[in-house]
Amino acid sequence: MSRQDSLDELRGLTRAFATERDWEQFHTPKNLAMALSVEVAELVEHFQWLPTGALDELDERKREGIRHELADVLLYLVQLADKTGVDLRAAALEKMALNRAKYPAAQVKGDARKYDEY
Amino acid sequence: MSRQDSLDELRGLTRAFATERDWEQFHTPKNLAMALSVEVAELVEHFQWLPTGALDELDERKREGIRHELADVLLYLVQLADKTGVDLRAAALEKMALNRAKYPAAQVKGDARKYDEY
Amino acid sequence: MSRQDSLDELRGLTRAFATERDWEQFHTPKNLAMALSVEVAELVEHFQWLPTGALDELDERKREGIRHELADVLLYLVQLADKTGVDLRAAALEKMALNRAKYPAAQVKGDARKYDEY
Amino acid sequence: MSRQDSLDELRGLTRAFATERDWEQFHTPKNLAMALSVEVAELVEHFQWLPTGALDELDERKREGIRHELADVLLYLVQLADKTGVDLRAAALEKMALNRAKYPAAQVKGDARKYDEY
């Protein structure tokens, strides 16, 4: 039997986690969006004084912190998508297609300016 | 043949997208963390003046905006995990286990205070 | 003698603080912008599970935390403005004038939609 | 007659602006904290792909954008402090004193690690 897709698996686990704790009452989309932004900032905090954040600038302790924060961001993201009825994989594939059209490789190669600056 | 896991699929797609545009030079972990925080804020913006953000408060236009922003957050998250060598699924499962131990259902049921406030 | 303006006073104090610690090398505008976003998230964290955050929802401990985070945000904001050569008071007055023109009171009264949704 | 202090002046102006538009109903501390985080992200966006954000990396258009975003951040900060009953100047001076004690110049000179890493 093939393994369940990661995003589906995490949706199931976060639902069970919230239900068991009766925390669904706090998990409005608005509150989850705030919680997501707080977790992202905890991730950003690890990088703020580093030159680039490349692997050789990160000691073991920092790598563990980053791993945990990346996980927290994903877990809140999965819950927010669940509450707003969004299929994350489908949405990401749709957005990749839009990005490919918006930033044609031949036109933007090596240039980081935003689309609206062209 | 079973479908590739979503997170692996998106990692492959984002790698190809960046390579084709020669954008890897801009994608330091630090810059990706900043970009992630910007996308999360664009998501937060949709909810900031709503009472809760529940589905019945969202019109079609807002739902589309939210779907695109959720996708952007996931895409930057996948790229940041890739650059820092983190397996997102494994990290999320590890964090869920830590959260279960940190917030025992019997103890925190219906209470949203942070762990460190207990 | 009249008291120095708050924003000028804080600019002087933050400059001295950074110089005494030889921290100016870390205080690029980019890093200060990241630090500012991290402090704002620490502020957001106090409000994320509250209904509205009105004063009667805040105990003494939370009020102290909020006061400290508001201060941190202001201190990084003052430093970032200093490094980018922006007069914060003049910029705020200029922006207020733009906002008055963009959101005429008669037209937007009681309506929180963003300008671009009109 | 001496000029009014900037922070007091901006508090008065933002109060009048909100009252004239009947927007106070939307300006809960929670919503203002979200709005503040969104404005900070718009500021961060200007710096995310730059090497350091120093003045010579900023063209006139970017400097104007940064000036407006710095202003927006200050204006929401003033409003949030107002709603939570915080005197921003006093809070910032209190926090500076705490920071001086927490990071003694002799001990931290030239080192950007966070206090809790010592």
Explain how this protein is built.
Four copies of one chain form a homotetramer. With 118 residues, chain A is mainly alpha-helical. Chain A folds into two domains: 3-86, Helix Hairpins; 90-118, no CATH class. Chain A is built from five helices and no strands. Chain A has helices at residues 6-21, 29-47, 60-83, 88-102, 105-108. In chain A, helix 1 (6-21) packs across helix 3 and helix 2 runs antiparallel to helix 3 (60-83). The longest helix of chain A is centred in the middle third of the chain and has 24 residues, at 60-83. Chain A is globular and about 50 Å long. In chain A, 42% of the residues are buried. The mean pLDDT of chain A is 94. Chains A and B meet through helix 1, helix 2, helix 3 and helix 4 of A and helix 1, helix 2, helix 3 and helix 4 of B.
Give a short synopsis of this structure.
Chains A, B, C, D: InterPro entries: dCTP_Pyrophosphatase, DCTPP. Chain A has 118 residues and is an all-alpha fold. Chain A contains five helices and no strands.
Key terms:
homotetramer, hydrolase (chains A, B, C, D), 2 domains, globular, Helix Hairpins, mainly alpha, 5 helices, NTP pyrophosphatase (Non-canonical NTP hydrolase) (chains A, B, C, D), 118 residues
Q: For the CA atoms, what is the radius of gyration of chain A?
A: 18 Å
Q: Characterize the main sheet of chain A.
A: none
Tally of separate helices of chain A: 5
Q: What coarse outline of chain A follows from CA principal-axis ratios?
A: globular
Largest interface: A-B, 72 and 72 residues
Q: Look at the structure and give the mean pLDDT of chain A.
A: 94
- The unreliable regions of chain A are none
Q: What is the β-strand count of chain A?
A: 0
Pfam families (chains A, B, C, D): MazG-like (PF12643)
GO molecular function, one term (chains A, B, C, D): dCTP diphosphatase activity
Keywords (chains A, B, C, D): Hydrolase
Protein name (chains A, B, C, D): NTP pyrophosphatase (Non-canonical NTP hydrolase)
